[in-house]
Amino acid sequence: MKRGLVVTGWMTQKIRWTAWTGVVLCLALLLTSWHDADAKTRKSRSKSKSRVKKASLATSGPSAISAVAVDVQTGEILYGKNQGRIQPIASITKLMSALVFLDTHPDLNRTIQISAEGLMLPGRKRFRVGERIVAHDLLCAALIASDNVATKMLALSTGSERGFVEKMNLKARALGLSETHFADPTGLNPDNVSTAMDCVRLVSIASRDDRISQIMRMQDYAFRSDRALHRIHTTNRLLKTNPDIVGAKTGFIRQSGYCLTTFVRGENQREVAAAVLGARSNSKRFSEMQQLLNKVLGK
User: Fold this and answer.
1) Residue 26 counted as domain residue
2) Which of 66, 81, 97, 146 does the annotation list as catalytic?
């Protein structure tokens, strides 16, 4: 009788240990399951936030015909809207004109005489036939005030306008601007066409030339010719409010709408280039560019 009780007690103890082992294993499985589920939830939330951020940028992006923002160091497209669409770029053309002019290794201190050919352009003109102006001052007038006569005279100072335009197109191909074509140095010709993507490449290259970037950051500039004192003002309103701008160029003709391409260097030296082409108004191109930069830079 005692032996039976001993066996029964031993069996009961074994059953209890087996039961507890089962409970512990179940709890371990439940904890593992909860951990995996929590990790998946966090990952899902992270992806959801990323999608929401991108969706927000897509829905509240520029109303311009095309726009793009690119991380210059990585090449990542941070925002894009019709960035491959070919369209007139107006005076953004002057960035290439400046690059090609400087490729000729000009003496920027020499004077250039304004010719009748240089004045054969539509619109108001600040210079007169026979007026003599230092080359550097003409370059400033071209990039700060977007002066067409100044730009054309820089081109003519190197030879013929036709030859200069050929060099612009050769340089565009050399720089990989495959969707870009130039028809004149000023941008007045609507056959000067490009894409938002090519424009950010162009402004990035131009902004890395200190001679160009220093000029593009000027809000005002004054110089004397042999006849008059000239005071010029930037066409880029963002220079007054955005200290991160390294280089930028505006553009407008009827066929292009209001255009702007910008290169900025923000916190931690992060470089972003952006373009807004075909905005509805002068003020829109600036407000939409600033909103775009704020979004992609997290401001």
Assistant:
1) no
2) 146
Any domain includes 171: yes
What total number of domains does the chain contain?
A: 1
Distance CA 222, CA 89 (A): 27
Q: pLDDT tens-digit profile of 109-146?
A: 999 999 999 999 998 899 999 999 999 999 999 999 99
Measured between alpha carbons, how far is 265 from 243 in angstroms, rounded to an integer?
9
Q: Is residue 17 part of a domain?
A: no
Q: Which structure tokens are listed for 256?
A: 């292009």
The one catalytic residue among 91, 194, 207, 256? 91
- Give me the domain span that covers residue 145: 65-296
Q: Examine residue 38 and state whether it is found in any structural domain, yes or no.
A: no
Instruction: For 200-224, write each residue's pLDDT tens digit.
Output: 999 999 999 999 999 999 999 999 9
Q: How far is CA 84 from CA 179, 207, 291, in A?
A: 8, 22, 21
- State yes or no: is 91 an active-site residue: yes
**48 among known catalytic residues:** no
User: Is 43 part of the annotated catalytic residue set?
Assistant: no
The whole-number pLDDT of residue 54 equals: 47
CATH code of the domain containing 194: 3.40.710.10
The one catalytic residue in 94, 152, 171, 249 is: 94
